Amino acid sequence: MPSTPTLVPDKNCWKQCTVADGGFLPSGRDYFRAFREAVLSAKHEVILLAWDLCETVEMIRDEKDDDGYPSKLVDFLIQVLEEKPELKIKILLWDYSVIYMAERDWLPFTKLGQLKHPRFELVTDNSVPAGASHHQKLVIFDGTLAMCGGLDLAAWRWDSSEHLADDPRRVSPKKKPYQPYHDIQTAVAGEAASVLRELASARWKRATGQALPELKASVSPAIWPDSVPIAFKDTDIAIAFTYPKYKSYPSIRQIEQLYLDCIHSAKRSIYIENQYLTSKILVDALCRRLTEEDGPEIVILLTHDAGWAEDMTMGRMRNRLLEKLREADEHGRFRCFYPCIKNGKEQQVYVHAKLMIVDQRILITGSANLSNRSMRVDTELNLAFIENEPKPYIQRLQAQLLAMHLHKQEAELQHSLKSTKSLIRTIEELNPESGNQLKPLNASCESDIERRLADTQLLDPDEPISPIHNVWGALKAQSDLYWHDQHSSPYLKGFKILSWLVTFLVAGLAIALFWKSGFSQEQATNLLASFEKKPGTVPLVILIFVVGGIIAVPLNLLVIATALTLGSWVAIACGLSGSLLAAGASFGIGHYFGKPVVRKVIGERIDTIIQSLRGRGIGSMIVLRLLPIAPFGLINLVAGVSGLRFKVYMVGTAIGMLPGLLAVVLTTNHFQKALVNPTPYTWLVFLLLAGLILGTAFWAQKKFK
């Protein structure tokens, strides 16, 4: 029988403490305003832990919020430092991956990055495994007030709680409008803020080797922003973490266990708002509750369309898990919605919140998404309010959030929730036909291949990805078995030695070409252009394709760069031969080094993929190459382990890759012509060709689903 979850330190939480005063900031506007008020009230220090930071973000977008200080974050902080001679500001920012460079400030060239102020420190923190990130969002003022949740002081975060369509205030630092954005932050004062400062100090020490200095006892009154209503007082909370294993630091999965315990304890309802839904463990727990005859209602709010890149990865996993939830919903107690604004045209609200409410007596909020990354890979911070019975502050928050999404009065939502005793009935009865509304999200996978790929969870790994480290560790562990196999022939031993030499050569080239250059399209073009008239260019380009194929550089980038610099025929010849050599080399690595090595690279999901490949013919291999359903290098490695015949694999690869290769080269050729000779005819030919290729790809995906 479900009951209130028991909080156990080091299992489902880090510590328990008391909040003297607490409140919620249900929009970026509320958070930005409260942050400024708290900074202006602070006397000793401001400590900020961030995943992202934009120094030029405009914090004031409305005259009502104007406090007389500069609107831009960087100018605001500099002026405050000048006016407060005792105030120190310390910022700990994740030393982000290169994949985010295009959309983030380059710190060495920013005011904050160059600021030489005796009371200001900006530290970048890379103390996580490769592929992981510091995703905690926390700011502490004088050790007496803390704010944490899903929001960073970054671009594209500001929005009002009304989520107005086409709000002219909602623009990026480059004055480009962006879609409505929903998130929430929690403010806590008292002991909880002091305990959270301990976390900040531990993170600071992890990054710099030194903990934060102890704060001197202060007789000044506790800080509280005037714009934030106090929602609760003298309330106990639990603080929970996610940390990946890193050097001597252990893996911590308190947030995952906390979610599982709270899902298990639900009696009447589970209400979730989240950016992602890709954690199979958590979804399995939700499915088990749906199969119960008297289990809880489950309502989940997600983003409808997160963009093509996320739709190709996290979106496919989300769609698969939504299918499983609908399949488990034997009693009609599951709904999934996305918030949007419908005034003639429909505009989605991007859901970035990370929140769960259970029975109006349990509230979890913080930085963790319902993804494998947040449960096991990234560093995360969540706050949990665990009560034995429904509490007014949780009831009001749930009503406030639903009122925001449905454009209703909070009192109307509270009355409906109380009278219907049903989240689903309340939403369906009060959902308007226009304006802000919640629409059903009925997403699903388009093919069985997509389902198999999603079931592997490769698109949202549950452990940090460090291929070189993992492969090296696996090879070292397998060395005795590999080198001293009594049944190996001299020929095979010779092949093993050669394969090792090739592996080290590939690794060296990979480091030189990929990690140092980043291999953007511009860099690839410049590299190839420098070799255009030199002897040996074609073999070198083929070698680049081989290395790129093995280390998972997008091959289309190399094809485009080759076509632009060396011509279409060279691009086709180098692309096909290089890709085939890379496919053969990766197949050989998988085949000869075996499952243990590949398992180390991609995890336990290898068995599912092997099963899907085993016994396949040339036709299936062609489909795998034609449709963008799995990374090129991943298919190569697993195919070598799966027992798939090498001839079938190579013939299917050659036939399956050729159409796509020709399409990329042909489109690049006509795009180049349109740029060199921009006439209506050249652009029309390019657009017709691009449309034909996209249409064919869409047809093929439908044909083979």
From TrEMBL:
- Could you state one GO biological process linked to this protein? phospholipid catabolic process
Q: Which UniProt keywords apply?
A: Hydrolase, Lipid metabolism, Membrane, Repeat, Transmembrane, Transmembrane helix
- Give the source's domain of life in one word: Bacteria
List the Pfam families hit by this protein, alphabetically. PLDc_2, VTT_dom
Q: Which residues cross the membrane?
A: 497-515, 536-563, 569-593, 622-642, 648-669, 681-700
Q: Does the keyword Signal apply?
A: no
Q: Where is the PLD phosphodiesterase domain?
A: 130-157, 347-374
Q: For this protein, what is any one GO molecular function term? A: phospholipase D activity
InterPro entries assigned to the protein according to its UniProt record, in alphabetical order:
PLD-like_dom, PLipase_D/transphosphatidylase, PLipase_D_fam, VTT_dom
PROSITE patterns referenced in this protein's UniProt entry, alphabetically: PLD
Cell inner membrane keyword on record: no
Could you name the Gene Ontology cellular component terms for this entry? plasma membrane
Protein known as: PLD phosphodiesterase domain-containing protein
